[in-house]
Structure prediction request, 533 residues.
Amino acid sequence: MTAVEVVRVEGLCVELGGVKVLDDVTLAIRAGSFTGLIGPNGAGKSTLLKILLGLIQPTSGQVTVFGHKPGASHNLIGYVPQSLSGLDAGFPVSTLDVVMMGRLSPAKFPGFFNREDRAAAESALATVGLASMADKKFGALSGGERQKALIARALCGGPRLLLLDEPTTGVDVVAQDEFYDMLKRLREEYRITIVLVSHDVGVITSMVDDLICLNQRVFLHGPPDEAVKDGMIGQAYGSSTEIVMHGHDVPHRHLRRHGEGQHDC
Amino acid sequence: MIAEMLSHGFMQRALAAGLLIGGLCALVSVFVALKRLSFIGAGISHSAFGGMAIGALFGVDITLSAAVYCTAVALLIGWLSRKGGVHEDVSIGVVFATSMALGVAALGLAPGYTVDLFSYLFGSILAVSNQDVALAAAALIVVSSLVAILFKELLAYCFDEEWARVRGINTRLIQDTLLVLLALTVVVSIKLLGIILVSALLVIPGAIGQALAANYRGQIVISILSALFSTAAGLTISYRWDIASGAAIALVSAALFAMAAVAPSANR
Prediction:
């Protein structure tokens, strides 16, 4: 039986400022799965997440998220952005204020947050272990705490799909371990579909059900044990590559060696 | 001196308008500080000169022509910033300079129009009419109501615009609304504060609030109190020493900012 697909991408091409960032990407993400998205810098990993969020428009190709156009299912998606540096540490908001922004929705526009929104934000903070930090200024939190608060923000809208973009960048090792434990727990407790963009190949291959290796194209899409066994991860980053693509529910493989011409996908 | 000062009708009007405008500018300046819109504020306020001069040239009420012109400039700046391609500070700089040049050209062409340029540039307590007080009151009601009902979206837009978009918020609408509120605030403040000096109250109160408060609620309160004090004290100085009201208010405001910048605060 085929599991329900939460995300379906077919033949996606994205050009940003005349530069091709993603080329003929086809993949699917099953409901309830934990997918690791890896690839070298500039591979288009963040761009792919932004496509799924509806923040960037595809140049060509089909993308559906929960069966709809990207951006139409914002209530079902939680997002944890790549970098904390984009957020102003001097911004005068409490941690609870930031988490409550996870309750924003066109349905509540315009108007005020209510008691229910506040309770959801408090509960999300408790889930990530930051209940005692609710009133603390967001900018005064440590890097790891801020990252957890942003996860709480993503959780408090009650998402069915969580997209995390290199969430452990700039976070110390202890906080990273805590973070991965928390992801496992969230997955078990809430049955959320998770897509995690990471450079931490070793850690995520031990955690995920599926691994997608991206470098403009999809170089690998399958269970991580296969990838590790065949040494394909290294190949995708390097010169010779093996491509595993989902066709129509039937995965198939295509082997390509460096220097070969156009491949078939 | 205070009683004597308040016995004059023009001073009563200036003070009433000043306090209303102070509250108005303080509220908008909170978002100017949060979203770092100081240069946009200066750009829109200088553009008002072009709008007023065009009104004078065609015999239209200059407040009305400034309102239309500044709203158009605000929307143009918003559109240019979203379109990308040209850096925002460049597009603001171009719009700013063009509007000032247009203003000078239009005034030169206006037949026999002798406007008191100095008081429009730097503000005058004598220029405030009853109609201006009513206009400031109406603007305060409109701006504070809109800020209240859009507050959570405005705050999210200023803090993390991408996140607001992820949550399905129309950030284009939020940005345009904020810029238009900024433009209308500029227009009603010009007579008292002057085209050049209105940006002082659009920038400084919110910055004082942010320097002293750890939370936006405190920032709003401090911003409003500092703007009210600056306008009341500034108008008194303007009356006593015959200094342009915009300059007196800006100087008091700047002095408060200097004190806030060195004061121990909850935000550091």
Summary: The domain at 2-260 of chain B is CATH 1.10.3470.10 (ABC transporter involved in vitamin B12 uptake, BtuC). The longest helix of chain B spans residues 9-34. The radius of gyration of chain B is 18 Å.
